[in-house]
């Protein structure tokens, strides 16, 4: 009787899909993605979505990603393209200039055991002494309002991402709007564990100038101003 061949075991689904978006990040993307290698070793999937970089970001990122996708620019669009290709039940949306803590996977799994979505506290890295205070205020505001920003590394179940229809594909405030939608399903897990984001945009244009700009844009968004108009003003100022 011929030996019976054992069929190969089905591939194990990743425990978390990390979706990193980038645009012209060649100077730093290799180091940023290399820092995520321990999470890949723990069973996480790393999906990098490029928005049409004109430098060699794609070449730098390709060896360090499980999937590398190239699409048109736009944070919301890039995040949704990555989520559509994700294989895990849990999704983490990460900006290329944000660094996760060592225990990020444990923190996310604990958060999603009780909530359908959540975010980290954020610390802004830079020279200005005001950046630590700004980070504290962002975290406090987020706890009081239940609204998260992209710099806080938003995470959610794949099912909740589908339930709200993904990120609204608008040119600005997509993180604010998806937070509003997710809040209707349930309160966020507000993790005290910190991610670290690059403070270059704050320092390049001036800390107080950037604060005033963001407050003004947020206020007008809450008042119903078209996100496309706000995005044009944001680009002009920057």
Automatic annotation (TrEMBL):
Location of this chain's protein in the cell: Cell membrane
Domain of life, per lineage: Bacteria
One Pfam family here: Glycos_transf_2
Listed GO MF terms: glycosyltransferase activity
One term under GO cellular component: plasma membrane
Transmembrane region(s): none
InterPro entries xref list: Glyco_trans_2-like, Nucleotide-diphossugar_trans, Trfase_2_rSAM/seldom_assoc
UniProt keyword list: Cell membrane, Glycosyltransferase, Membrane, Transferase
Domain Glycosyltransferase 2-like: 17-106
Family annotation (PANTHER family): GLYCOSYLTRANSFERASE (PTHR43646), GLYCOSYLTRANSFERASE 2-LIKE DOMAIN-CONTAINING PROTEIN (PTHR43646:SF2)
Protein name per the record: Glycosyltransferase 2-like domain-containing protein
Originating species: Halomonas huangheensis
């Amino acid at each position: 009787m011929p030996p019976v061949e054992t069929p190969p075991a089905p591939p194990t689904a990743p425990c978390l899909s990390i979706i990193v978006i980038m645009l012209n990040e060649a100077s730093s993307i290799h180091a940023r993605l290399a820092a995520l290698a321990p999470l890949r070793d723990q069973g996480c999937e790393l999906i990098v979505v490029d928005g049409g970089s004109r430098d060699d970001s794609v070449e730098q990122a390709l060896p360090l990603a499980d999937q590398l996708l190239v699409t048109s620019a736009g944070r919301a669009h890039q995040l949704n393209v990555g989520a559509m290709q994700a294989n895990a039940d849990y999704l983490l949306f990460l900006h290329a200039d944000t660094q996760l803590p060592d225990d990020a996977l444990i923190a996310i799994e604990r958060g999603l055991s009780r909530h359908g979505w959540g975010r980290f506290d954020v610390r802004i890295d830079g020279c200005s002494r005001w950046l630590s205070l700004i980070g504290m205020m962002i975290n406090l505001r987020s706890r009081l309002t239940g609204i998260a920003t992209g710099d806080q590394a938003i995470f959610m179940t794949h099912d909740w991402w589908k339930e709200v229809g993904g990120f609204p594909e608008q040119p600005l405030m997509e993180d604010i709007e998806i937070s509003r939608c997710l809040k209707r399903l349930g309160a966020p897990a507000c993790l005290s564990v910190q991610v670290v984001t690059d403070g270059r945009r704050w320092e390049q244009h001036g800390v107080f100038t950037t604060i005033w700009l963001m407050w003004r844009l947020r206020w007008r968004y809450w008042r119903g101003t078209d996100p496309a108009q706000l995005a044009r003003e944001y680009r002009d100022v920057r």
